[in-house]
Amino acid sequence: MNTVVVEESPVPSAAAKGTGGPRGVAALARFEARRLLTSAPVVFSFAVYILWTVWRTRSSWDGFPALQDADRATQGGPLLVGLGVLLAADFAALRDRRRGTQEWFGTLVLPAGRRTAAHLLALLPVVLLTAVCVAAQFTWEALKPGAVGHGSPAELLVGPLTVLLLGAAGVLLARLAASVWAAPLLGVLYLFFLVLGTGPSGDTGGTAWLYPVVSTSGNSPFPSDLLGRPAAWHALYLAGVALCLAFLAVLVAARGRGVSARAGLAVALAMALTGGVAQSRGDSAELLAARERASAAPEKEQRCVTRDGSTYCAFDEWVPRADDWAGVVGRVRSLAGDPARDRPLLVRQRIEARYGLDSDSAIPASTRRHQVTVGTAWGGNRVPEFSAAVAGVLVAGSEAAAAELCDGRMVTVMWLAVGWEDDPMGTLRRVRLDDSVEGAAVVLAPTDPLSMTAGQTDVVRRLLEKDRDGVAAKARAHWDELTSPGVTTARAAELLGVPGPEKADSCEE
Amino acid sequence: MRGVTRDLVRPVARTVPWRALGAAGGVGLLLAAAVRWADGPPPSTALLALRCAALTGGLGLASLLDDPARHTTAAVPVPRPVRQALRAALVAPPVALWWAAVLLLVPADLRPPAADVTLEAAAVSLLACAGAAVALRLTEGTRPGRAVAGALLAAALTGPLLLPDRWTLLVQPADPRWAASHDRWAGLAVATAVVWALSAREPLRRGRP
Amino acid sequence: MTITVSASGLSLHYGRTRALDEVGLRLSPGVTGLLGPNGAGKTTLLRVLATAVPADRGAFTVLGHDPGTVRGRQEVRRRLGYLPQTPGFHPDFTAFAFVDYVAVLKELTDRRARHREVRRVLEEVGLGDVRGRRIKKLSGGMRQRVALAAALVGDPGFLVLDEPTVGLDPEQRMRFRELIAGAGEGRTVLLSTHQTEDVAMLCRRVLVMAAGSVRFDGTPAELTARAAGRVWRSDRRDAGAKAGWRTGTGEFRQVGDPPEGAELVEPTLEDGYLLVLDGAVDAEVAA
């Protein structure tokens, strides 16, 4: 007779090692994390995110980032990664059911709630990877030579937390809806409601902060202490919501059993509520008062430094940029004649913070003599705009006077403003609102714009085509007449040695 | 063949993944309804909602050719193009009704030119079906829908980022490129329809159409 | 003997793997068994012959039609029953509705005749009582029989069955053999299997495949004869044995090159199969 001998298994049984507990969860989480990191949606979304971020960051803020804005700029990309993670986490958590293995897995040591917990823990490497990408992007900005200001860790946390939130949403979705179609469809809703069009706009108070990413931004950066973004509360809120979804997923899988999951849900809910309420209180009275002070009387808040006899006053975080400003002032002055050549200027940084972060309110021209306004942004077009303002003040005396220039002095202003550039014609084109070098146009400046007539444009263009030193010598020689009120465009052209406009022109026409 | 087609209508109608289509349709209607209920959204939001609804339609239609009995019915005399066309013909009327409902849900003063967005939606739907047909042609899988839906979603996300300006597809009605972009949409619709028709055919030799 | 299916030079590559390598064969009415290890190319050959996938090269005819043309392929499919290795179903269909669906796809358009035919094949595979039950409620063996019914419906002249007995219990398997033997009367049946007993009990002819090509083509008796004089019994494992195991009596039953004076025993079809495969492997190594 055949005897069947069942040997004692040499492999320690699961029960003996206690793998049903945390160690089993950790092992499964490691396994799922590897699968998640290599799943198609995650790989694809990370590839797009990284390529897009690298491409954008190469030239972001024209190389002169304010780090209190650069931290927020890390939040958009993870929205895409989050969508990929949502899909992948949903598919992974559905895998048991889709392959009909739920009954089989049901007999395994790890109960459903713990398997779900493993799926949630498997999100952590993806979240960590997002954090690394965010940190790399921010570090890159911070290492740019033109960087100023301070980033906020809470703003940097938003990206990774968004990924965690969406991943947890994916796992929860898998526990609520067994269909593989739920996640892509939810993805479209997510795109529509949270990412593309109908996201938070305008008001930064109240319900807007319920969205994961609130990217309030106007044209010009604010000093860090005037931002008034409840970034830390928002990070707490996001973490709370993410944990709520996670614990809900565990509870749904475990059919409501599990004391620790219920306790966790309560704590997470408290976090989400605390953060949610605290973040939506709106701008405090102190903040509004500080913004008022900074806008109306910046001189009380600023620090001043002296370069080449001129004074540069800026909010603390921008003081390092005084050298860049002084460089432009020096070059413009080098083209001017006496006495403007040595006249000390006061360059004052000004902002309009009273209407909030995302308003693009204009700054009125300064009426003080020999004072030039500079904004908080720099690089790119901001340089010739500032240069135009400096030239306007040197010629007309003040920004307000420069904005009203109508006569031949405008020729001198624009020649000073762009003449020192390596590519003066290209700069002239960029600094004009319509990107042209012909016809009448508005010239941008940090405060009120200047305006050029068609005739003045023709003369300036002819000047820029000539030898710079020759024109500069003539400008110095005839400086007094060139800058005297009432000089015509034709006369200015004559003094500078180029043909005048075809017909007499003025800005009144 | 006509008798076969008539007899196939009922069983094929039962094999169409109505639940996935219904879920997608529901989400599409929800998007359009959100525009109707929203407090004075700009027309660009209405257009975005319609485009997202078209995308959900595409996601649903990606499952149109899912057929768990694919291998069991691999060698039957009724050709594959006929079977796929029958499925398409069965879902076309409800999909058309659904799209009309989506369009009508968007308030008339916000609605972009209906014919043009319908062309966009048709192109997206054809793209989904053609993708599923290509997946069936190239793989042995019985349910290509999920992967095709993922690819469609990825294309919708990255297309606007990657397409050069000359080929841009997503513009606003006020944009001067609107007409040109819809020529491209029409081209896309025709091209995907051709791809679908070609990949529905069963090859006589591998690697050849 | 009439030849109903003949093929020559069938080749099919998946990447660098040669799934079929210049396969030629001739089939005549009756059941032909196709044996071979996993990955030998059995399923690929069946799928090519069932027109489910086209070959890279080579040609074949089925019942006088050439599947290399659109019209010819359709004619072949009209005369074909195919049971794939992993049949799929629409789980919400009843057994009757599913087989009826396949029958429509096989162009049985006369509704009453078709329903009669569907009932007949369901009776034949022993599912007459459960034909109204949804497929998702049926057991694995029953689903396999639904797939067989779908292959049999329409009285095809050429029946291609890919491992139809997998997952069936012994009683169901007996029932299946009965069915297939019945189906083989007047039809050409090509049956792939891992079960050598299936072949021994059912088949008039047997093909053995390895590494994409046919290594043996003959009757089961001829396959068994390959092992004549190469199976022996002894009380220890001998060096010349290709395979050997201790039987219930405590002696070793061995296949291979017997030592001098070994106590030879009657070979089985399985012994012949093992030796054919072994020869195939030797040939591979020599090449």
Q: How many angstroms separate the termini of chain B?
A: 23 Å
- Runs of chain C with pLDDT <50, length 5+? 283-287
Described by strand count, sense and barrel closure, the largest sheet of chain C is: 6 strands, mixed
Task: Give the strand tally of chain C.
Answer: 13
Q: How does the major sheet of chain B shape up?
A: none
The portion of residues forming beta strands of chain B comes to: under 5%
| Order of adjacent strands in the largest pleated sheet of chain C | 5-6-7-3-8-9
> At the first level of CATH, what is the class of the largest domain in chain C?
Alpha Beta
CATH architecture of the largest domain in chain C: 3-Layer(aba) Sandwich
Number of domains of chain B: 1
Continuous helix count of chain B: 7
> Roughly what is the average pLDDT of chain C, rounded to an integer?
88
Proportion in helices of chain B: 55-70%
Query: What's the overall average pLDDT of chain B, rounded?
Result: 91
What portion of residues of chain C is helical? 25-40%
Transmembrane segments (chain B): 20-38, 44-65, 85-105, 117-135, 147-164, 184-200
Protein name (chain B): ABC transporter
Keywords (chain B): Membrane, Transmembrane, Transmembrane helix
Region (Disordered) (chain A): 1-21
Q: Characteristics of this structure?
A:
heterotrimer, A: 509 residues, mainly alpha, two-stranded antiparallel ribbon, 6 strands, elongated, disordered N terminus, C: 287 residues, Rossmann fold, 2 domains, 6-stranded mixed beta sheet, 4-stranded antiparallel beta sheet, 35% helix, 26% strand, globular
Describe the fold and architecture:
The complex is a heterotrimer of chains A (509), B (209) and C (287). In chain A, the strands form 2 sheets. Chain A has a 4-stranded mixed β-sheet. Chain A has helices spanning 14-17, 22-37, 40-57, 67-70, 77-98, 102-106, 112-121, 123-143, 153-176, 182-196, 231-253, 259-279, 285-296, 322-335, 382-396, 399-403, 409-419, 424-431, 454-465, 468-477, 479-482, 489-496, and strands at residues 303-307, 310-314, 346-349, 371-374, 441-443, 450-452. Chain A contains 22 helices and 6 strands. Chain B has one domain. Chain B has helices at residues 2-15, 18-37, 43-61, 80-105, 114-138, 145-162, 178-200. The longest helix of chain B is centred in the middle third of the chain and has 26 residues, at 80-105. In chain B, 44% of the residues are buried. Chain C is an alpha/beta fold and 287 residues long. Chain C folds into 2 domains: 5-219, P-loop containing nucleotide triphosphate hydrolases (Rossmann fold, 3-Layer(aba) Sandwich), CATH 3.40.50.300; 224-286, no CATH class. Helices cover 35% and strands 26% of the residues of chain C. Chain C contains 9 helices and 13 strands. Chain C has helices spanning 42-49, 70-78, 95-105, 111-124, 140-152, 170-183, 196-202, 220-225, 269-286, and strands at residues 5-14, 17-27, 30-35, 57-62, 80-83, 158-162, 188-192, 205-210, 213-218, 231-234, 241-246, 252-256, 263-264. In chain C, 46% of the residues are buried. At the B-C interface, helix 1 of B face helix 2 and helix 3 of C. Chain C: Belongs to the ABC transporter superfamily. Chain C: Keywords: ATP-binding, Nucleotide-binding, Transport.
